[in-house]
Structures are given as C-alpha cells and as structure tokens.
Amino acid sequence: MGGRSALPVASVEARLDAFESVCDTHPHVVQGDLTDRDVVYRLFEEARPEAIVHLGECPSAPYSMIDADHAIWVQRNNIEGTMNVLYAMRDLAPEAHLVKLGTMGEYGTPNLDIPEGFFEVEYRGRRDRLPFPRQAGSWYHWSKVHDSNNVMFACRIFGLRATDVMQGVVYGTRFFGSSADHPVDPALHTRLDFDQAFGTALNRFCCQSVIGEPMTLFGLGNQRRGFLPICDSMQCLTLAVDNPPEAGDYRVFNQFEETYTISELASKVAAVASDMGLDPRIRRIENPRKELEEHHYNPDHDHLLTLGYQPTRDMDSEIRAMLEDLLPHHDRIAAKRDVLLPDIRWDGSRRTSGFLDAGNGAGSGSPGEAPNRDQPDQVEPMIDPVLAGAR
Description:
The chain is an alpha/beta fold and 391 residues long. It has eleven helices and eleven strands.
C-alpha cells in the first residue's frame, strides 16, 4: 500500500527474546501459510493443541475492494485458511477449542439492536432461535461472514467447539498495558499502520496529529463503531480460551468496550493531543466507502462480562500512550504522509478523496488531488501478495 508501520517492527527473533525476558517463556514458532493444508496438518500433528486462537487472516476492507484480484485473494486466503483449520481439528484435535476472530463489521449497521450472534424471531406464528442476519459492507467483511457460517456448520456436523469473537476496532500500542505494569521493550511494540487499507481511523488520527496533518473524517463522521484497547482484547481472548464451550457448541461473543462516532473519536484525540502541546485540527473528506453515515448502533456485549471481563483502560489514557510512543517516530511517519488520504473507492475506481470543508491547514488539497508517491525508498520491503501472485 506504499505505507509502513509507524512504529519500527523488530525481527521475529528479537520479539521472541523480548517476550521471554518479560514472560519467562519462549514460544515455539512455526512459519507457514494456513492455506497450505500440509502445513496446517503438520502443525496440528506436532502440537496436538487444546486451544487454537485463529487470527491469521487479511484484516482490511479497503484492500479487498481494490479490484477483482484483491477481492478474490482476500476471500480465498481467509476462507481456505479457516477451512484447513477446521478439518485439521476434526482429524487431529477434535477436543480442541477454536477461538476464531470475527468482526463486528459482519453485522453491518441494521436498524435494530445487535445481539451476540443469535436472536429469537417469530414469523407467521412460529418461533425459533436463528443467527442474526449479517449485512457486511465489504468483500473482506463477507469473507468473515462466510467464516462464521463455516465454523458454525463444522461444530454441528463434526462436534467441534468454537467461540466466534466479533471484535470491535482494537487500538493502542502497549498490549501489556502501561509501563507501570511491565517494562516497555520497544521490541514488543505492536505494528501500527496508518495507510488507507491497514490503518484504522484512530491510528490515522494519532499519526496525523503527531506530524501536524489535519485529522480526516470520512463524510459526516457520524459512523458509530465499537472500540477496545489491545491489552483488554488480550484479556477477552484469554477468558474465551479459559472457558471453553461444550462439544458441538458454537457461541458468539461481541467484544468491545464502548461505541463512538468517528467525530467523537477525532475529538478525543484532539483533546489529548492539545493537552500534550500538539496542534490538532479536524477536517472532513469525501467518503470513499458506501456506508450509512447516520444509523442506529446498539450491540450487546454481555457474554464476556459474565465470564469476568473488566475493562482496565480508558480511551483517553490509551490515546496519550499512543501519542507518546509515536512522537519519537515523527520523521518516520512524515516520510509516508502521502498515504494518509484514501484513494480506494467502493465503486472500483481510484481517486483521492478531496476535502469537503474550507481550510488552509497542512495537507489540505482540492478534491481529486493525487497523493505524491515519489518519496525516497525509506520503507521496509513489504510485498503485496496479490500482485506477487502468492496465495
């Protein structure tokens, strides 16, 4: 995507060493492709897992909307990888518990409250408990819907047990929490992208504030979503692993702490950034997506609370920690500022979103102004698997 992680990413070896120094254990690492069934089966034969936490999928809606090749790659990569895991469980680890990362985006934004996976419905005098209808908004989100259906079906026919985690937007740079909890080792920082495909709105807002660019809201900025910090995401996944369902049971957890509109999100970043002496600004740009910008959004999230989930961080303190971690990398972010404005559109075209309001702040431009992609080659090599022909 022409971008880079705002935070430098250490090598696998350095991350493992840092993890061992903090947690006093050295994880065993096998590198392979989940769409390669032989790789998955060999891993299961070696590990005979009791639990599988499956996070290995392409996580980007815009990436899946670039063109037919990218849409098809995301669908095949995500769905085939999960299918291989399900069959390996059936054949080699039938008692294991699958914790599968879904997304709240599977539900879309219906004009109804959103339950955790299932709801009671009455139709023509008959009642049943059915999966809540999905209304995904991208080819990526539809791949996750297909995953959910496949996992649910595998539990029914193979007798597997699975927890499908419909996760909100995760944010933060410190999955161990604050430096008061654990020493902050730079090798354990998360990857933090800010390009249009792999960077979330909050990542983008923080990076824009650090380098003096205006925070860019898509359209009205009234889209509402669920959010939680990465350290609490780890807590939720741990609770799911430690409390497995019965054999044959497929359950759904909605995982988030609070919901905010994108405008509210930008205002929070602006308030924290101002308090830190930065000069944040907020501007609106053309929305490249096809989505409702004014909508009802009231999802349930009771199951994890019942298991003992307790939020440990507030958004303001996590935003401050993000900005503190990003400020030393000002130049690294500024060198790739051209990727901050989106040009992938849901109608299949490529045109940079222009500003909808008047302004003379840094980064302002006319509608359709193309980003400058002639920056010096200062970024770590990253290969687009679609363009490279990889599966």
